[in-house]
Each structure stands twice: as C-alpha cells, then as structure tokens.
Amino acid sequence: MHPHFYSALSFKWSQVDLFLSDLGAKVKLLNNDELQLMFPFMRFGDIVLGSLGSENEGVFDGWQLLSAFREKNITLGVQYIKAKVTGFLYEWNNDQSRAKVLSERGQWRHKSLRRLVVDLIFILMEPQVTDCAPRALYSYLFINCAGAWSGEVAEMAGFGLGEEIMSVPIPVVARKRYAFIFHCPDGPSLDMPYLFDPSGVWCRREGLGHLYICGKNPSWEEDNQIDHSNLDVDYDYFDTKIWPVLAARVPSFEKLKVKNSWAYYVDRNLYDNSAIIGPHPFHSNYYHCGGFDGMALQHGISAARALMEQFLEGAYVSIDLRDFHLSRMLRGRTVKPECF
C-alpha cells in the first residue's frame, strides 16, 4: 500500500459528528483557518470543518490484491470455474401433496434450492471449451457475490418473481462511474491529500509527475440522469460536474489537461444504498454479499470473513452484520450510510 493521507470536507455543522470515530481511527479535525494553514493551495471559504487522517491510510492496487487472494486460495484447495450463470434449479421438498396444485409462482415454499446452471467455459488451467451445453453444479450453499450483476443473478433464482417473500427483489443494479486522469504542471505535489469534497467530487495525486486522478460520487438525482447501459465516457460530465469543483477548490487546477479516462460499474443497492450481506429469509442456503457501491475492495474482505464465521461457527464473531441482512427490506428498515 502507498501511504496517502485522506481529507474529507464539510460545509454543514450537521455533518461534523460524521467525522468522529470511536473505533481508534487516527483522525484530526481542522476548522476553516487550520485547513487554510495546512493546505494554502486550496480555498476553504465554504467549508466549516475538515478531517485529516494521520495514520494507516493510503491507496493500493486492487487487481494485485485480488490476484494475491486468488493464488493463495488455490494453494488452499479452492477451485475456480470460469462460467456464465444461466439459471438456478430447485428440487421439491418432502411434502409435495399440496405444493403441486399451487401455481408456479406459489410453489416456492415447497422447494429447495439445489443446483446452479452454468455455461461451462473452462476450469482452472484447462483449455477453453466452446459450444458447451449448460450443466448443473450441485451445492448445498450458494453465495451471490456477482457485484454489479448480483441483482440479475438473484432474479435468475426467482427472487422478485414469486409470491409473498419471493416477491421481494434484491435491488442491486449496475451504476456507471467515471475516473479521469489529468496533468497539471502547477498543481500541488506531496502535500496534496486524497480529497473528498462535499459535492461528491474526489481527487488524489497519482505518482510524482503532477498527475492526478479524480471522479465523483453522484447524488441520486444526478445518478438517474447518467446512461448506465454502456461504459462510454462522457467528457461533458467532467467539464460540467467535476472540473468546476476542482478549480474552485484548487485554483491551479484551472490549467489541468485530461490525459486518460475510463468508466466502470459499481453495485448500488437502490433500497438504501447500503450493502446486503447474509442469508435469504426463506431459502437459507442462499447468501447475498453485494451492494457496496464501489467500496467492495475495502468492505468485501471483512464481509467475507463474517460470512465464513456464520458458516463455521453458526454466528458472527468479529463483526455483527445482522443489520445488513436482506430481511431488513421485509421490515421496512433501512441502513443509511453516513457519508455524502
């Protein structure tokens, strides 16, 4: 990990308590004058308070981390199968007398999830197989961690298509986000923090050659105006939504020049924008782990450990994640993330 201190800004006193942490995080709170003294190359006229991390913060290569996990898992006996999920199969429970006279949508209560249907492409290091018919993989436990496509996979299992509990969908959808790399010869260097502006714009230094990477976490209204059907980059979005904010906060960024950009998907939970972690209320052998809205690399490791504790110990040991269970949607309860 490359050390890089974070700074989150607030222009409302009501947001001040969001920076406070009782979990041991080394965070300093700076008022307007202290921020200006610490970062003279920025403007803080509209800012009331800012946080500044002093320890254990930085950036890392997500792909290298995932590759390391994969290689370690293989040494522990995990088998990876590259495949496309096309559906789920259910088997009847022992009591079929009443179930078979019900409508197909109402039969869910008398069925158990047993098989996953996939189009097999290749397994581990075997040569790629083409034109392969779908085949069933038997399992007693299914964990849906398909990221931005986990909502589609859940629908293949019938969630949101049946009656009663099965009528409740898992509302995780793919949402497009942008990342832009720009060069600014007069921009700040090592004293540039990983900046989180109250508008949702974020920016950090990329290396030592006056390169920076930036993007934006859009509001719900703004997110609904983005075309999420493709990964085309909208440069007007940068010109109208990101650049003006950057230039107002760091005046030297008025001379920036975009060098590279890309679009990517995050998995957003449309219900309350918080993760869904845990078993389905009825089909207890189906677990969901998603809806992290772009924070999967940070939160996914802890979520995976919590699920393993559920499987091996029968309860959460390290972190209690019951508030994130899917059952909260049936109760009309929300988990609101305390961030912009």
UniProtKB/TrEMBL annotation:
The protein's name: FAD-dependent oxidoreductase domain-containing protein 1
Organism: Trichinella murrelli
Domain (FAD dependent oxidoreductase) ranges: 21-309
Keywords for this protein: Oxidoreductase
Name of the gene encoding the protein in the UniProt record: foxred1
Function: Required for the assembly of the mitochondrial membrane respiratory chain NADH dehydrogenase (Complex I). Involved in mid-late stages of complex I assembly.
InterPro entries, A to Z: FAD-dep_OxRdtase, FAD/NAD-bd_sf
GO molecular function, one term: oxidoreductase activity
BP GO terms, sorted: mitochondrial respiratory chain complex I assembly
Any one annotated GO CC term: mitochondrion
Pfam families, per the entry: DAO
Keyword Oxidoreductase: yes
